[in-house]
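Dear support,

Our group has been running a series of protein-ligand predictions, and this particular one with guanosine-5'-diphosphate is the one our PI (initials K.S.) wants archived with full inputs and outputs. We had some confusion internally about which version of the output was final, so please treat the block below as the authoritative record. The input we submitted was:
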Amino acid sequence: MVEDKLSFIKEVKRRRTFAIISHPDAGKTTLTEKFLLYGGAIRSAGSVKSRRSAKYAVSDWMEIEKQRGISVTSSVLQFEYDDFCINILDTPGHQDFSEDTYRTLMAADSAVMVIDCSKGVEDQTKKLFQVCKMRGIPIFTFINKMDRMGKDPFDLMEDIENVLGIRSCPVNWPIGSGKNFKGVYNRHENQIEVFNDGNHGQSIAETITGDLSDEKFTGLLGETLHEQLKSDIELLDIAGDNFSLEEVLNGNLTPVFFGSALTNFGVEPFLKSFLDITTPPKARASNLGEINPESTNFSGFIFKIQANMNPAHRDRIAFLRICSGKFDKGMVVNHVQKGKKVKLAQPQQFVATDRVIVDSAYPGDIIGIHDPGIFNIGDTLCQDDSKLEYADIPQFAPEHFARISTTNSLKRKQFLKGITQLSEEGAIQVYKRPNIGMEELIIGVVGVLQFEVLEYRLKNEYGVEVSKQLLPYRHIRWIANEGIDTSDLSLTMDSMLVVNKNEQPVLLFQNEWSIRHILERNEGIELKEHS
Ligand code: GDP
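Confirmed final output from the archive:
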């Protein structure tokens, strides 16, 4: 028994679960692939992508992603490196799918932020960074594409601090850039790593290491680069922020690394330091207080639901983040919100390029469980009979709305089935006009491309064609007054009254001004920004 407990704790301690975030094209997919390469999970780089070529990334499941060359849904990958068991949560880069990313970040213990060295901090990075910050997730920065001419490393650090408002501390520092990018200097270990050119990133990069003052580097790097490096490091030591693990873990300081995912330069030094600095799964907040991952009571929450990932099977998978205790295949757990027992029979994990059935899993791991339509995002599963519930996963307010109806009334049933499915996945939010039937719905989404996904999936998975009319509303407010008679409301031309699935009244507005107008015209009305 004691041995069981010890080996369980060992498993928890070697888990690292993180999300990778970036603006599209910064190199998130390439970096993920290189992690898999270093972990030995794939044999040669290039087997995962490129997305714009005929091949597609492991993380790109849907046909639409292949067609458009963007990643629509997040995926999960597990691999081993250096005795660590790593769970990567990949997130779609395109801003229109950010609600998926927001939810996925709830399942991560830390985040890697990939930045393109020629662009600096971009819009989408800013948004995702804010979500991490809100949740206090530690953020690690990988400045990518150093094999290309980019901004000066000192300017990039300043950019991170000014635009994102987080202090930064370089753990490694680039030696040269562009064609002259020769390697990195690890400040923690006072070690230079110079890379051998290798074979353009197909296999892992070989390195020559030594300390900063080692004479051999003058020959290897040339005198100018070696001197430049020494003076950069001197400046950083005097003027830079000091490294503090506590500040990193509190999300106030980001450790910064430089490299090139494409050529593999700097990938392994980053991975090693990152794994070393990040922590195993931490205790999580719940209605019963903080739950320690090392508690033997198995528990976890569902953060994502995805249907029809495999068109041949028409399956529906709920993604569960394990928070405490050991998971064993076939175990019976309590579905807390539904008050039901559920057997977890065919749990899947996503290992490199495959899906496999797992026998056991540990805190920090993500497993996919078959969902016969009983799970919702945010549901808690636990082994004992406590009424444990993990904190709710916030729903993000939609910013775009459209009127959607079936073109064929005989397909009404399939239409509603598809709409219900997509709303349960969290991809769309469904409203209707009061006193109007379900043939015509008002759909709200965070990004407009979600409408395309909706149309595509309804057609391909449910055989339903729809007509869509985009509406000019950009803001949503929930009416908080209990039992209000909405027929008494005085509305304006630029607002619309709808109800959600629980018949609660909701108002849609074209602009901020119309929200103020409604508040003035309807004394006592209370509008909430969240449901
Ligand atoms: P994502 O959209 O963030 O997942 O970015 P990708 O990984 O798809 O990369 C976008 C493009 O940048 C692709 O053409 C990659 O080959 C290229 N790329 C990625 N990393 C590097 C790098 O380190 N150097 C250079 N030169 N190109 C890179």
